[in-house]
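Obj.: predict assembly geometry.
Materials: sequence records (below).
Method: joint structure prediction, all chains together.
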Amino acid sequence: MIELYQFPTAYGLPNLSPFCMKLETYLRMAGLPYEIRWKSAPFATPKGKLPYIRDGETCVADSSFVIEYLKGRYGDALDEWLTAEQRAAALALQRLMEEHLYWAVLYLRWIEDANWPATRQAFFGGLPPVLRTLVPMGARRGMRRELHGHGMGRHSREEITALANADVTALAAHLGDKTYMMGDRPCSLDAIAYAFLANLLWVPLEYNPILEHARTYPTLESYCQRMKARYFAGA
Ligand SMILES: N[C@@H](CCC(=O)N[C@@H](CS)C(=O)NCC(=O)O)C(=O)O
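Observations (raw structure tokens):
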């Protein structure tokens, strides 16, 4: 049985980490049985981040490397029908969500003062009293450093919002009236799109101009509802 190591969650979402949610969604889409091993922090993990998996003697870290491993080991029914052009578009959209939109959402969750109490509660509410004060402060400082290193954290909130809104517009334009990201048939890009869009649409934050923009595209909400009904019904 595949063991999926990931963060605890909140708000009824499969995971507050879009990368963890992406991998769990992929496992469900591919019909691969798995067991979750909850980890409250990414300490003593292969790359200092979550998710990762263990499959027998094999340990693989990073959601994309895990998916490559799973495709090699168990087959690739989800993506085998994609043309080279569709694969290229899927990769570009993946990078848009994972390397760009992700950082704007991190900024909103961790740096915007109005949202910090909800983020602190969701991620650290379960810690004992003293740790509940100290750990979030250090984590927020670390997040600020990472955002600065990436570059997103050097922009104003208006600039970050504009950058993220353009991503959301591109995702909505690509989805159009299609059932799934690449047409009538789901593929692994849908694991990513569902994870990143649900983490935007379904995490309640006090101040969220990116969500306000996403709501102007009702197809994004119905897409997420469709993915949830198909792959997480009763979960
Ligand atoms: N490229 C990695 C990204 C994973 C990632 O950034 N995970 C975050 C949670 S969303 C994490 O573990 N952060 C903890 C940290 O950086 O200390 C993947 O695809 O798995």
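Conclusions so far: The chain has a mean pLDDT of 96.
To do: check interface contacts against the pulldown list.
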